[in-house]
Design brief:
Elements (H helix, E strand, L loop, with lengths): L15 H16 L5 E6 L3 H9 L3 E9 L5 E9 L2 H7 L1
Antiparallel strand pairs: 1-3, 2-3
Helix pairs in contact: 1-3
Length: 90
């Protein structure tokens, strides 16, 4: 599972996010071959969702995360069944 991925707004569009995803996918493929990879994204985070869509992520679930202020925030689960495919996509 990839828990968080953040790139400074001033650094977006420079390939940093793709490199970070590729690095974690390589680690997963090396240490956990054929196990895949997933991550949760806030539903309202449209730029992140578009990024994962472009990488071929597939929406496989939804859940509510309870924020510290007590509100429920909807999350979307993206997955790739095969880390090697994700490496190829980056």
């Amino acid at each position: 599972m990839l828990d968080n991925l953040h790139v400074l707004p001033s650094q977006k569009g420079k390939g940093i996010g793709r490199k970070l995803v590729r690095d974690i996918a390589c680690w997963c493929d090396r240490d956990y071959p054929n196990k895949g990879l997933y991550l949760w994204v806030f539903e309202q985070n449209l730029p992140a969702r578009r990024f994962y869509d472009r990488l071929g992520g597939v929406v496989v679930g939804e859940a509510n995360w309870n924020a510290p202020d007590g509100t429920a925030v909807k999350e979307i689960r993206y997955a790739r069944k095969n880390s090697a495919e994700l490496i190829a996509a980056t």
